Amino acid sequence: MDPLPVASAKQLNVFLCTINSLCTPLAVEVKEAQLSLKRDGDELLHIESTINNLQAEIEAIHKRISLQQEARRGVQARIFTNKARISPVRFLPTEILQHIFKACLPNDQYIIPHTQSAPLLLCQICQRWRDVAEATPELW
Questions:
Q1: Closest by alpha carbon to 139, among 126, 123, 124, 116?
Q2: 105 near 111, Cβ under 8 Å?
């Protein structure tokens, strides 16, 4: 962005005299003012047009960002799903799962069933874990 022009002392003095005076301006002053108004009006239109174009570009970029974020969420979901599909726990033999499940039991002699602890909690993980837990009499 270009800095604002610095007025010379003479220009500032003429400006202040013109603004503070109710005298009729000379024809040359009227012509200068009209030219300045035209030039400044054109410059203002150009600036406003540039601002509008930049705002349109910003909106377009925001839309592109939203589309990319949506695409990223889709890819992340696929990655999560595929990692889960090949998770090592899926390949554990049933006997090892049963051993792990038994180790999860509370140390109490009598187990009070609760959905937030083994064995009921284990049955909520997935169908395979439910089947393994139900097929393990030591859990019940």
A1: 123
A2: yes
User: 36-74 pLDDT, tens per residue?
Assistant: 999 999 999 999 999 999 999 999 999 999 999 999 999
DSSP state of 6: P
**For 76, phi and psi rounded to 5 degrees?**
-60, -40
Tokens of 118: 């083994």
Picking from 70, 68, 137, 61, the residue whose alpha carbon sits closest to that of residue 98 is 137
Distance separating alpha carbons of residues 124 and 84, to the nearest angstrom: 17
Alpha carbon 112 to its chain's center: 46
Instruction: Specify whether the CB–CB gap between 137 and 102 falls below 8 A.
Output: no
Question: HSE (CB half, 13 Å, CA atoms) of 2?
Answer: 5
Contact 105, 126 (CB under 8 A): no
pTM: 0.55
